[in-house]
Amino acid sequence: MNIYQKCVEAADYIRQYADGSGAIGIILGSGLGSLAVEVEDAAIISYKDIPHFPMTNVIGHAGRMVIGKLNGIKVICMQGRFHFYEGYDMKIVSMPVRVMKLLGIRSLIVTNAAGGVNRTFDEGTLMVIEDFINFMGDNPLTGPNIEEFGPRFPDMTLALDKDYQKLAFETAEELNIALRKGVYMAYRGPNYETPAEIHFSEVIGADAVGMSTVPEILVARHANIPTIGISCITNMAAGITGEELNHLEVEAVAKRVTNEFKSLIKLLITKM
Ligand code: HPA
């Protein structure tokens, strides 16, 4: 069965429980999943029940889809995502975006925890992803093009919606939340980068590094879904301060800024 058919079956299954048409899709990264708890009139669907979805078992990822209303706006929240470093094919990693497309989402918000490369960032900085560098060594759009979703050679100039970025800055200002912007560079993981790799990232123009999100942005652009990405800088990347990195600390920082992050998203969606 090809990936398109798998997405159709997954979407057909989800549609039995909730209508996602016209919703905003939101993919919640490490430590940011608690936004899903605030969704009202929620239909909650466990990834393990969705046909062709793999199981997630990364610490800090719940693995469920929550469809309902957030601040009066229809949303599909993905609480937990699939990572390339878990060993899944890129087409599986990015499959939820395509399933949400079939469910009828009108826009997408992708979020993640990331390491800060830009030396003017700090732990807890929120960064709008202005552009990205795919350094994962793979791409979910390889293989026969799935015409049902989009064209063979999708443009990436406008992969991240400029109007949404403007709205995010307006929203942040209204809420008195500091918001930065920058280039997100995705590594395969699962190890945190070496200091030499981070030096390389800095030189080539990255502001933040992580191990996710790029596959999702690629398929979203392919399927013409207007998308905004927001990174939570949970730590300065390897070698910048000389401190060692660990996942628990990454999660702890994400949790610390989660309230700011949640208010930003909750107001932003009312403007999108
Ligand atoms: N590197 C890669 N991914 C990350 C980091 C990091 O420093 N912090 C959170 N996710």
Describe the protein's architecture and organization:
There is one protein chain. The chain is α/β, with parallel strands linked by helices and 272 residues long. It has one domain (3-268): Rossmann fold (3-Layer(aba) Sandwich), CATH 3.40.50. It is built from eight helices and nine strands. The protein has a five-stranded mixed beta barrel with strand order 5-8-7-6-9. Helix 1 packs across helix 3 and helix 4 (162-175) packs across helix 8 (258-271). The radius of gyration is 17 Å and the shape is globular. It starts with a helix and ends with a helix. The mean pLDDT is 94. Bound molecules: hypoxanthine (HPA). Hypoxanthine (HPA) binds at residues 113-115, 192-193, 209-211, 234-235, 237, 245, 250.
Write the layout of secondary structure elements.
Blueprint: H1 3-15, E1 24-28, E2 40-46, E3 64-70, E4 73-79, H2 90-93, H3 95-103, E5 107-116, E6 126-134, H4 162-175, E7 179-186, H5 195-204, E8 208-210, H6 214-222, E9 227-236, H7 247-256, H8 258-271
Parallel strand pairs: 1-4, 1-5, 5-9, 6-7, 7-8
Antiparallel strand pairs: 2-3, 3-4, 5-8, 6-9
Helix pairs in contact: 1-3, 4-8
The structure holds hypoxanthine.
CATH superfamily membership: Nucleoside phosphorylase domain
Structural class: alpha/beta
Q: What is the top-level CATH class?
A: Alpha Beta
Known CATH architecture = 3-Layer(aba) Sandwich
- C-alpha-based Rg, rounded: 17 Å
Q: Which band does the percent of strand residues land in?
A: 15-25%
Major pleated sheet: 5 strands, mixed, barrel
Strand order across the largest sheet: 5-8-7-6-9
CATH topology group? Rossmann fold
Shape category: globular
How many angstroms separate the termini? 35 Å
Q: Note the run of SSEs as H and E.
A: HEEEEHHEEHEHEHEHH
Mean pLDDT: 94
